[in-house]
Specification:
Layout lengths: L4 H12 L2 H7 L12 H5 L2 E8 L4 H7 L1 H4 L4 E3 L4 H8 L8 H17 L4 E8 L26 H8 L4 E7 L2 H10 L6 H20 L6 E5 H6 L1 H12 L4 H7 L13 H10 L2 H11 L7
Parallel strand pairs: 1-3, 1-4, 2-3, 4-5
């Protein structure tokens, strides 16, 4: 979509600014943005897929590829640089008020342009690999510092904009194995600890959300019965169910426990004890997308 000059300047200023210069350089009047009404805001919704690494973000994105290309759906739209400044640990934090003002300006234009959905899929934690920041990570890891997006902060940022969050979850043994297999790290202990704290973080945040704002889905259930799961998601997101039928054919079963090495499997089974998994499983099992 085409942005007006004022919004382009706001985004450029945010991307070029540091926290120390932002307050001095940027003053956004959030009460005079115009073009946005309560009625228009109610027709726009954030479809947000969240979950730990290896829980199926890419599979779901691939399944709904045609839907994400619709002109009334924004995937990594003009607002995305603002969110990256909130989430990417490699970038300095900026004042939430400035980001909020810029985002509201964009929302006004989205509504006026007929955009009905903003799509975002976020892997927790959020961050890159293979860069100069790696020296702050585990010696065996190529990761830089990672940041876990704050869901409560996003609720404040959106200021009442409808949000439908899909929480993906999967056996932590398989998610850790997936991370190691993709070469993000060779440190088994580090990745197990990272997965544990990520599960706890997501469970704590999701547990405080209104139940109407989220649904949970086990990746194992998605690959076992993709048509049922994607149809349920299409109904909840209020999108054409033909996208679900097309997407179900693209879902493939990934690595199973049988493909995890014996030593790695033994360590992870001991690490992720039943008692430890209960800390987050109670949240994941609540408010499921499919019965």
């Amino acid at each position: 979509m085409t942005l007006d000059v004022s919004s382009i300047n706001v985004i450029k200023m945010i991307n070029d600014s540091s926290p120390t210069t932002m307050d001095a350089n940027l003053r956004i009047d959030t009460g005079s943005m115009g073009g946005e009404t309560e009625e228009s805001r109610s027709s726009l919704c954030l479809h947000w897929v969240i979950g730990g690494e290896g829980t199926g973000h890419h599979a779901l994105r691939h399944a709904f590829d045609r839907y994400l290309k619709r002109p009334d759906v924004l995937d990594k739209g003009p607002h995305y640089p603002l969110w990256v400044r909130m989430w990417d640990a490699h970038l300095p934090r900026l004042p939430r008020k400035a980001i909020q003002g810029a985002f509201r300006s964009l929302v006004a234009q989205y509504c006026a342009s007929g955009v009905r959905a903003i799509f975002e899929d976020t892997s927790f934690p959020y961050g890159g690999v293979g860069n100069v920041w790696s020296r702050f990570a585990s010696p065996k890891s190529r990761r830089g510092p990672l940041r876990r997006p704050d869901i409560a902060e996003m609720l404040r940022l959106l200021e009442g904009l409808p949000m439908k969050i899909l929480v993906l979850h999967r056996s932590p043994i398989l998610t850790v194995n997936s991370t190691l297999s993709r070469g993000f790290s060779s440190d088994l202990q580090f990745e197990a600890e990272l997965a544990e704290t990520t599960h706890q973080y997501i469970a704590e945040q999701v547990g405080s959300l209104p139940e109407s704002s989220y649904r949970t889905l086990a990746f194992e259930r998605l690959v076992e019965d993709p048509l049922t799961c994607l149809k349920a998601l299409a109904q909840w997101w209020e999108i054409d169910e033909t996208h679900a039928a097309e997407g179900a054919e693209k879902i493939r079963k990934p690595t199973s426990l049988n493909e995890v090495s014996e030593d790695r499997l033994r360590f992870l089974e001991q690490y992720f004890s039943e008692e430890k998994r209960l800390r987050w499983d109670s949240v994941y099992q609540n408010n499921s997308l499919v019965s």
